[in-house]
Write a structure and sequence with these properties.
The protein is an all-alpha fold. Helix content is 79%, strand content 3%. It has 9 helices and 2 strands; from the N terminus they run αααββαααααα. The protein has helices at residues 2-10, 25-44, 48-59, 84-137, 147-197, 202-269, 275-333, 336-345, 360-363, and strands at residues 68-72, 79-83. It has a two-stranded antiparallel sheet with strand order 1-2. It is elongated, with a radius of gyration of 50 Å.
Amino acid sequence: MADSMMSKAATMEIPFNSNGDSRNLAEDDSLEQAAKSQWRLREKVGSPAGLRDLQQVMVSGPNLNETSIVSGGYGGTTEGIIPTSSIKGSNMHHHSSSNSSTTAEEATRGIAVEKFDIMKKWGLSTYKCTKQMISERFGRGSRTVDLELEAQIEVLRETKRKYENVLRLARALTNHFYSMVQTQHALGDTFADLSQKSPELRDEFGYNAETQKLLCKNGETLLGAINYFVSSINTLVNKTMEDTLMTIKMYENARLEFDAHRADLEELNMGPRDAVTMARIEAAQQQYQIHKEKYERLRSDVSIKLKFLEENRVKVMHKQLLLFHNAISAYFAGNQQQLEQTLKEFNIKLKPPGADKPSWLEEQ
C-alpha cells in the first residue's frame, strides 16, 4: 500500500520540456527541488511517520478538477496543456446522450409491454368465450336466459324473414309492371301510326291507341305508388330492423362474455383458497361485475328498441298496406281520379317522364 501511495504522489504532475532544453534557472531549480523531495519521500515511506506524511500530502494534494495535463512533443518549443474540465464536459455530454437513448428504449419497451398486455387479455377473454360457447353447444355449460326477451327476438327475426319475402315479391311486381307499361306505351304509338296510314281502319286503330295511352298513364301512376311502397318496406327491413338486430348481436356477445366469466369465477371458488388463488378470485370477481353491468345495459337497450320497433312497424305497415290496396283497386277498376287522389293522400309526387334519364351533360 505504501508503494502504491508513493507511486501516486510521484506521478501527480511532471512537466516535460521539449527536446530536453533548459528554459530558465527558476524552472531548473523547481525540477531539482521536486527530485529531492521525491528522494526524501521514498526514504521516509518505510517509517510510520513517513506514511503519515505521505497520507497528509495526498489529502492536501491538488484538486483533480483544477489539474492540467502537460505534454511536450519531441523537437517542439511549446507545451500543450489540456484542462480536465473539458474532459469532464465531454463525459457529461456522453452521459446525457446515454440517458436520452435509455429513455427512448424505456418508452419503446413500455409500449411493447402495453400491447403485449392487451393481446394477453384479449387471448384470455377469447379462450374463455370459446370454451363457454363449446360447453353450451354440447350441453355441458349453463347459460343465462331471459325467456321473454328471447321470444321477442325470435319473433323479430321471423318477421324480418317474412318482410324480406314481401319486399322481394314487390320488387318483382314492379319490374314486371314496368315492362308491361313500356309495352303498352310502344303498342299505343304503333296503333297511332297505323291509324294515320290505314284510312279504312283509322277509327279502330285510333280507339286502341287512346286506350293504350290511358292505360300507360294509369300504369305510371300505379308504378309511383308501388315504388313508394317498396322504398318504405326496404327502409323498415334493411335499416330499422337491421339496426335493432345489430344491438341484439351485441347483447348476445355480452351475454356469452358474462356467462364465460361467471363460469370462471365459479370454478375458482370451488378450488383451494391460498394466496395466489384469492388474488385470482378477486380479479375474476371484478371482471364478472364489469361484464354483468355490460350485459344488463345491453339487455335494457334491446328491450327498449324492440318496443319502439314494434310501434313503428305497425304504424308504417298500416299506411303502406292502405296505399297499396287503394292504388291497385283504383287502377284495375279503371278509376283514374281515385288513383290520383290516392297518391295525393299519401303525398306521393310522380316524376315527370324522362326524369330518371341522365342529362346530355352527364352522359358526356
